[in-house]
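Q: Given only this backbone (418 positions), what sequence would you predict?
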């Protein structure tokens, strides 16, 4: 080993802080830090220890198996190029997750979370400056949808998780000074407002779910109080947001109209909801209508090869075939905007079980933590991702996958029981 352990640990600490900070801000910056971390880890020796850390941790094994199944499914794929593209996007589960888990230490946790929230704070400031037209829009941002560093598809889920983290401190950290309590509360309010002046509906749903989880965690086992608080708070926030944000109102109304239109055409055509007639809705090219069709088409493809799937690279081709038969006017797609559908089509039931096993072990391991913060966040993270993966492939996108892997690297570390 070229550098001693003390120096290496300190180097890892600062690299992890940089990664936490760059994570919601820049793809290039985060990837550069990742390359440095992984390179140091690969050439720092102690390979037997590293190997044992992986094979003795059921969560890391589940992650590696999930990746490996996709590699194996390349054997029977027709489109090897697209299959390799999918595998490339999933390398975090093979290497980065074990690497981060092995180098993360408990004393780093507070610092990396602060670095992450500091980056979110910078994003918030810039988002508001664009929204108030003080700054001209740049990169992905527009005045109506001010998400400068990434699209709203990724931004709002990351913002929702950040809101959960800060709210947890406000609700549960009894050691906060009055100044910190006030600052954290103000930060939460700014983030919640920002949640509804940006257009990510999946992230907004994730936000409401995060608030519900917080309520249940706050009242512990008192289910009646939790339900009453949820019934009051969630619709209250929704009502205020709907009547205060033009963008949120439009997004909600368009979703409702899309669903009504989809169902209306179905009724007009007298089409029973089955695989042979529902595909005749060829003119429903709306975001919600498309997602409904994506799900139905994916299920039909899955039914042709339910155990092993059609292959890691074959979703686009198989989808295009069925789309051209039943609704050629509908848009085609390279992914179904649903992580479960994509995994089922590509790798079958075997792949889905491997995916769900990751979340199973996350939730299971959370209960072993003596820290309430680690336990609560460790339960919330998989639950929130299980929800939003219904609307997109959030474990294939850079920002959300990196956040998922990064926080998982310390939320479930050293808590496994045999």
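A: Predicted residues:
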């Amino acid at each position: 080993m070229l550098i001693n352990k003390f120096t290496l640990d300190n180097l890892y600490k600062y690299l992890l802080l940089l990664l936490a900070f760059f994570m919601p801000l820049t793809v290039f910056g985060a990837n550069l830090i990742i390359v440095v971390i992984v390179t140091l880890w690969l050439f720092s020796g102690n390979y037997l220890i590293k190997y044992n850390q992986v094979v003795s941790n059921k969560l890391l094994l589940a992650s590696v198996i999930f990746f490996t199944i996709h590699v194996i499914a390349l054997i029977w794929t027709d489109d090897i190029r697209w299959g390799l593209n999918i595998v490339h996007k999933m390398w975090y589960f093979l290497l980065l997750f074990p690497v981060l888990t092995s180098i993360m230490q408990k004393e780093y946790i507070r610092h990396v979370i602060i670095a992450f929230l500091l980056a979110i704070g910078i994003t918030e400031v810039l988002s508001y400056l664009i929204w108030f037209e003080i700054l001209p829009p740049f990169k992905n941002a527009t005045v109506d949808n001010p998400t400068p560093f990434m699209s709203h598809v990724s931004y709002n889920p990351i913002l929702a998780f950040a809101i959960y983290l800060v709210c947890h401190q406000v609700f549960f950290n009894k050691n906060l000074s009055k100044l910190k309590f006030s600052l954290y509360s103000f930060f939460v309010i700014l983030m919640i407002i920002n949640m509804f002046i940006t257009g990510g509906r999946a992230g907004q749903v994730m936000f409401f779910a995060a608030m519900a989880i917080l309520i249940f965690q706050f009242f512990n086992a008192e289910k009646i109080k939790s339900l009453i608080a949820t019934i009051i708070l969630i619709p209250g926030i929704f009502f205020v947001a709907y009547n205060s944000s033009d963008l949120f109102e439009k997004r909600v109304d368009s979703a409702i109209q899309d669903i009504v239109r989809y169902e209306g055409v179905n009724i007009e055509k007298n089409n029973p909801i089955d695989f042979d007639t529902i595909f005749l809705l060829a003119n429903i090219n709306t975001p919600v209508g498309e997602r409904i069709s994506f799900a139905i088409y994916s299920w039909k493809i899955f039914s042709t090869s339910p155990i092993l799937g059609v292959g890691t690279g074959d979703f686009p081709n198989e989808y295009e075939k069925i789309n051209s038969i039943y609704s050629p006017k509908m848009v085609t797609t390279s992914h179904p905007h649903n992580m479960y559908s994509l995994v089922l089509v590509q790798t079958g039931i075997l792949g889905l079980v491997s995916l769900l096993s990751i979340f199973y072990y996350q939730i299971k391991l959370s209960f072993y933590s003596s820290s309430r913060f680690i336990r609560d966040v460790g339960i919330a993270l998989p639950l929130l991702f299980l929800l939003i993966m219904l609307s997109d492939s959030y474990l294939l996108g850079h920002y959300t996958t990196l956040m998922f892997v990064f926080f998982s690297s310390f939320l479930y570390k050293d808590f496994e029981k045999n």
